[in-house]
């Protein structure tokens, strides 16, 4: 077992760093990942690199174009729409449950997340803003206290964070999170759920415009 721990830790480090490079744009859609080059870059063998790549394939960040060619996935509009459909349903549920369950300690955690996000927003620290905005949503899911909900969201978290990073209207996003906090703090589950759904819909439009052009924010009829 002890012999496997270093490999597992190395695999996790490589996976997390590769994911971060994708999330921050250092690796862009269509970029190829070469095991040998990455192993040299990280100073590791090719085994943990290969396993990290497989893990990121499962998360939806990478795609195998052929047996010897792995690239960063280019999300099509349908991929983004499907992710937002799932996010809308699950985050609406999470916010409603959080409103029912949140006590003083839980609300304090959300307040801290908002305060940290406000400081990052004032500095214009894009990377930190993305991390903290994701943390705010993670806290809501944790407060909801639904193990199955957490399990369903876990494999989507990376891609959802990537989508969140497309919204650079930071001040408006912070204001929406404050209003979502107020809805949860009110204890009104329906109010919290409704605002969470509206928040996701606004972010859907912003993200689609960012990725696919000005008219993409309009959802297809039907």
Characteristic key phrases:
10 helices; 73% helix; three-stranded antiparallel β-sheet; 222 residues; mainly alpha
Kindly describe this structure.
- This protein has ten helices and three strands, in the order αβααββααααααα.
- Helices cover 73% and strands 5% of the residues.
- The chain is mostly helical and 222 residues long.
- A hairpin with a 2-residue loop joins strand 2 and strand 3.
- It has helices at 4-23, 35-42, 46-59, 77-101, 104-123, 126-144, 147-153, 157-164, 170-185, 189-212, and strands at 32-33, 62-66, 69-72.
- The chain has a three-stranded antiparallel beta sheet with strand order 1-3-2.
Short description:
By secondary structure, the chain is mainly alpha-helical. The chain has helices spanning 4-23, 35-42, 46-59, 77-101, 104-123, 126-144, 147-153, 157-164, 170-185, 189-212; strands spanning 32-33, 62-66, 69-72.
> Treating each run of at least 4 consecutive H or I residues as one helix, how many helices?
10
Give the % helix: over 70%
Question: What integer value in Å does the Rg equal?
Answer: 19 Å
Query: What general outline do the C-alpha atoms trace?
Result: globular
As an assembly, this protein is single chain
Query: Describe the biggest sheet?
Result: 3 strands, antiparallel
Query: Would you report the number of β strands?
Result: 3
Mean pLDDT: 89
Structural class computed from helices and strand pairing: mainly alpha
User: N-to-C terminal Cα separation, in Å?
Assistant: 54 Å
């Amino acid at each position: 077992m002890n012999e496997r721990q270093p490999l597992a830790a190395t695999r996790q480090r490589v996976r997390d760093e590769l994911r971060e490079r994708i999330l921050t744009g250092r690796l862009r859609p269509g970029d190829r990942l070469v095991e040998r080059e990455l192993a040299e870059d990280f100073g590791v063998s090719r085994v943990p690199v290969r396993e990290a790549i497989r893990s990121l394939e499962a998360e939806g960040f990478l795609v195998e174009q052929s047996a010897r060619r792995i690239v960063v996935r280019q999300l099509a509009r349908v991929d983004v729409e499907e992710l937002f459909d799932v996010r809308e349903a699950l985050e609406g549920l999470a916010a409603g449950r959080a409103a029912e369950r949140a006590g003083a300690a839980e609300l304090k955690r959300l307040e801290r997340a908002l305060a940290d996000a406000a400081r990052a927003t004032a500095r214009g620290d894009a990377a930190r803003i993305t991390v903290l905005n994701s943390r705010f949503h993670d806290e809501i899911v944790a407060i909801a206290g639904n193990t199955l909900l957490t399990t369903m969201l876990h494999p989507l978290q990376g891609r959802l964070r990537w989508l969140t990073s497309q919204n650079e209207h930071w001040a408006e996003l912070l204001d929406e999170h404050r209003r979502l906090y107020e809805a949860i703090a009110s204890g009104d589950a329906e109010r919290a759920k409704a605002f969470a759904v509206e928040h996701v819909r606004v972010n859907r439009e912003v993200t689609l415009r960012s990725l696919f052009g000005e008219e993409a924010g309009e959802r297809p009829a039907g």
